Predict the 3D structure of the following.
Amino acid sequence: MDLGPLQTLIHFAYVFAAALFVVGLHMMNSPVSARRGNLISAFGMAVAVVVTAVQLIVLGSPVTERVEGLAWPIIIAGTAIGGGLGWYSARKVKMTAMPQLVSIFNAVGGGAAGLIAIEDYWTAVQTGHADVWPSLFVVAGSILGAVAFSGSVIATGKLQGFISGAPIMFPGHRLLTAALALVAVGGTVALILGALGVINVAGLELVILAAIVLAALAFGVTMVMPIGGADMPVVISLLNSGTGLAAAFAGLVLLNPVLIIAGALVGASGAILTKLMADAMNRSVLNVMLGGFGGGAAGGAAAGGATGNVREVAVDDVAIQLAYAQKVIIVPGYGLAVAQAQHAVRELAELLEQRGVEVSYAIHPVAGRMPGHMNVLLAEANVPYQQLREMEEVNPEFARTDVALVIGANDVTNPAARSNPQSPIYGMPILDVDAARSIVVIKRSMAAGYAGIDNELFLDPKTGMFFADARQGLTDLVASVKLL
Amino acid sequence: MTFELVAALTIFILAVLVGFEVISKVPATLHTPLMSGANSIHGIVLVGSMLIAATANEPLSQLIAFVAVIFAAMNVVGGYVVTDRMLQMFKRRPAAVPTPAETGQEAGGEG
């Protein structure tokens, strides 16, 4: 097949856009070049969209060589509405709610990929071109897109608190999940056998596709429900990878190079990233996806066990301890992110610094709601970057620290990860908070952390427990330190 | 299988391999921005949405295309903007920072 000069140019412009995605994504491996990498990737996206517009204006659809009457209003109005919504929400969202927003963007991306697949299949059936390969790609694309859509919506709900962050399961849950998967796979097989001419599904194709899509949507829900809120980043990353693959499958049907390359790129890199994120929590991806972590036996044991000698401290005592210390390390965790206490903590740190206290922050790799989230939150609260210390760098310093102030962190400070081979978190890298001369833990209650196990740090004689919501507790501390 | 499909599948497989290699040894700090950045790239479905809009010739098809374009555009624009916002936070690096001067200026402004 001979392509005309313009068609050739368009093809290579697509390849150029895809190359920009590869380069951009690669540059995002390092903090130095990350922002430029994102801009390069955005430029690639602009190239791809403009090239597609040129294709449609000059040559028309690659399939029909023309453009239907309503196409431009649909494209222009849709882009304006969607782009506006995306722009507004991305600019306005609070940094603490950012993980939910990423999940929403993944949901709509997956939804779009699924809709493209459905529309492609419908067109193929109408024109009698529902051949084996295109059928396989559209069905795979619609399944992945639908799972990514509903799964990401549930993930968003869990992060936002619309749905309980706790693992939710009902009797027969796994059975239902398996049955839904079976419906999707069975429907796919039926459509492929139909396309091969082995069985006759004429007239039923769209009904079968609808059943597949509905099963996939429900599967996304039952898959994410049993997974705890703190594991959502891994889930979102996995669904993100699925959306990428769905986009690639759409590209294989439309035979569009930029869709294929960009989709495959995200599918593969997303899978690697999912593994990296799970590794940072010392978990396997499978372990995360099976869900229910910390429920059941471990949770029950913790509820009965956390009754050791806890030393409770009052706000004024903590304020004095901090104000007269030489060196304080703040250990922010999930609880700080949830309570949106990042500004309050910065205020406290500044007050202490004015009094000559050396303050730094110890950031565990998985602190916050997502890896790296804590850095973003603290940076947003104008905490100087050089005060944020990574785990390996800060751990030796705890020994010469007067007060380690743990705010809403639990499992990442649990010495059991070092000392108790029976502990579920044994082997997870932790912050050596217990090496500090004294420890203050701001926490709402003695409730077990995400892993559902006791933290012997809280029973340490050096530890004072300051029971408060992270933000309220810090605000009280600030007021108290000011009075000294 | 047509020649076009064979070529397309070849591209697909090579791109998957590139995707596996393009991410390596990322500091945990960058996991979230990187995920968000990859998330914006699958906004490429906007191209697919535009292509199906071009051939949509009945109300239901047009509705599907319209929703797909809205979704995809939201993915693209929102994804890149929020990633950029996250990465803005990293612009001050420990080594290169003239932060004392910055804070000095701020203090001066207040005074």
